[in-house]
Amino acid sequence: MPTDDSSRTLSPDALHRDPAVRVLADAMPSFMAYVDSSFRYRLVNRVYRDRLGLDPEEILGKTIDEIWGERANVIRPNLQRAFAGELLTIEFMFGDVGVINTYVPHRDASGEVVGSWTFTQDVTELQRSRAALIQAEKMASLGRLVAGLLHELNTPVGAVRASAESLGTLAARAEREIAAMPEPAVTSGLKRCVAALSDIAAVNADAVERIRGLLERLRAFSQVDQAELQVADIHASIDNVVALTQHLRGEHIELVRTYGDLPPITCRPGELNQAFMHLLTNAMVAVGERGRIEIITEQRAGEARVSVRDNGCGIDEQLRTHLFTPTFQGGERVKTGIGLFVTQNIVTRHGGRIELESAPGEGSTFTVVLPIRAPLESA
CA 61 to CA 39: how far, in whole Å? Predict the structure, then answer.
């Protein structure tokens, strides 16, 4: 799109008649359109017309509702933001097609927004590949969790086994003592034995409850028996992730949770659990064997914010550019493979974003920002 003042001030009616604009638009390999502030098409390029299977006269002057029907409700909010002067790029599902739309406000000579340019890329195949990648990473995460779960189970199972052995020993001793004692002493000995058995039973019950709790948290993390899209408590998701990664933190990493007032949000809890786990394990790598991690939640401007802050090694400015790419290798700072790439894709799929603050030697803060609204079923 030309950027000089003359093209910038073209009226919406003159756009489709301007030869330079039409040649440039038709030369573009991606979809391009111009919609005025009354939601009417004033320009569509050749690729756009071919996809619709319509002639220019069947599109120009028509509203988005006349062209797209109910699907116009998907793009109308984005156009409204562009008409308010916002330059934005959004990825979403449009019917059964995955797209990335960039909206560029168009202003007249007085500076008033009179329409929006729309540039569209078809990313359906990319989204399918991403979904397969997320699923593969999710299975890998569950595998690591199973290993951690087995580690956690060793302690309570060991307690149950030791209690069983003690129970057998005490029972045998009680039999010998009862056989050797006179009748008045038998009652006292039995009382001691019952008291000991009661203590052992309590230990066993506590160990079994711990096992049950771990299994419940694993079930909640994986969401294996829940619908994909549901209303979920973000704090419950964080608590599950914290509990399931406890064995990775050891005794010398301090973890603090500072929760604000967050309402339940409509999301895919299994995916968000996965994202939070990546950020938390990444922070653990950053602080090493000793350090502090803080998880902070708050609500701000209609958005839910979940920050994972560590006082670890920090991230060099040069590395941040490639931090969320699938081929990124971060040395000692990031050992989660494609974890950050997957995390960003999960957050983007929820209509959110990830913010990063970091400085070498001063730690890092990754903040997941999610809209407090229901995402599109197919988004």
Answer: 9
Are residues 338 and 210 part of one domain? no
CA distance 83 to 77: 10
Q: Which residue do the tokens 């990754």 mark?
A: 366
Residue 317 sits in which domain range?
223-371
Same domain, 227 and 208: no
Distances (CA, A) of 344 to 86, 165, 216, 266, 349: 22, 50, 27, 18, 8
Q: By three-state DSSP, how is residue 46 classified?
A: helix
Q: Sort 165 into a burial class: Cβ within 10 Å, 0-12 / 13-18 / 19+.
A: exposed
Banded model confidence at residue 13, pLDDT cuts 50, 70, 90: low
Question: How confident is the model at residue 171, as a pLDDT?
Answer: 67
**β-pair type (230-232, 31-36):** unpaired
Pair type for strands 291-300 and 253-258: parallel
| Residue 223, phi-psi category: left (phi > 0), alpha (psi -120 to 50), beta (remainder) | left
Rounded distance, CA 73 to CA 70, Å? 6
- Residue 175: pLDDT band (50, 70, 90) is low
Distance from C-alpha of 164 to C-alpha of 158, rounded to nearest angstrom: 10
Q: In CATH, what number is assigned to the domain containing residue 32?
A: 3.30.450.20
Q: Tell me, what amino acid is at 238?
A: I
Asked if 277 and 348 sit in the same domain, the reply is yes
Q: How many helices (H) and strands (E) does the chain have?
A: 13, 12
Q: What number of residues does the chain have?
A: 379
- Domain of residue 318, CATH code: 3.30.565.10
Task: Output DSSP code: residue 336.
Answer: S
DSSP 375: P
The answer as to whether 142 is a domain residue is no
**What DSSP letter does each residue of 131-162 carry, written as one string?**
HHHHHHHHHHHHHHHHHHHHHHHHHHHHHHHH
DSSP state of 54: -
> Which tens digit of pLDDT belongs to each residue from 284-325?
988 988 899 999 999 998 899 999 999 998 888 777 766 776
Report in angstroms the alpha-carbon separations of 243 from 148, 218, 273, 379: 10, 9, 12, 30
Among residues 311, 308, 321, the alpha carbon closest in space to that of 290 is found at 311
Quick check: 379 pLDDT over 90? no
CB 327 within 8 A of CB 310: no
